[in-house]
Amino acid sequence: ATYYRVNGDKTKALEYMNTVVDADKAIYGENHPEYIKQLENLAIAQWVNNKNTEASANYKVVLDKTSAYIDDYFSTLSETEKTKFWDKILPRFNRFNSFVIANYTTDKSLLETMLNNQLHNKALLLNSSSKVRNQILASGDEALINDYNNWLSTKEELGRVYTMTKEQVTEEKINIDSLENK
User: CA of 137: how far to CAs of 60, 155, 172, in Å?
Assistant: First the structure.
């Protein structure tokens, strides 16, 4: 299905994508990440075939299931796992946002969905960071707290350096690689 979509046969891509989604639904069930991934691919195939009502409906299911998965499992992941998970699902939200931008004039509810997704995801990430900070500060482990505060200072310094020109970085003799490694 993806082959046909990439090579310009949108109709055949849509036909095959429907078959893939039906098969994945039977094999994995409606809540499995593989099914959700293929349902998103179907929404994309529908979008390129100007079947935007169907694409919107499928995207709604995809985003609802993705958000439910985030709500259920995200907080239990390690920081590394959270980063990997977020890197994997962020493109899904970005593709939906592209769909919204292309179609909001015919369906205003898409804008509301996009905004709600943005707010939900920002709150989730902020809450996750706050929990880590609170756990560290409440631990009573002075070495850990000092490491955390040093990390925050370094992160702030790095943020400041990123706003500088190359000339300013050179002039102040800042080694960005060293700062990033630290």
Answer: 39, 18, 33
Q: What are 103-120's pLDDT values in tens digits?
A: 999 888 899 989 988 887
Closest among 1, 4, 37 to 19, alpha carbons compared: 1
At residue 141, φ and ψ (nearest 5 deg) are -85, 100
What is the spatial distance between Cα 23 and Cα 35, in angstroms, rounded to a whole number?
9
Q: Tell me the helices (H) and strands (E) count for the chain, helix number first.
A: 9, 0
Instruction: Note the pTM of the prediction, 2 decimals.
Output: 0.68
142 close to 114: Cβ distance less than 8 angstroms = no
CA dihedral 75, 81, 83, 84 (to 10 degrees): -130
Q: Are 64 and 73 in contact (CB under 8 A)?
A: no
Degrees to nearest 5, angle at CA 19 with 14 and 21: 90
Contact 48, 11 (CB under 8 A): no
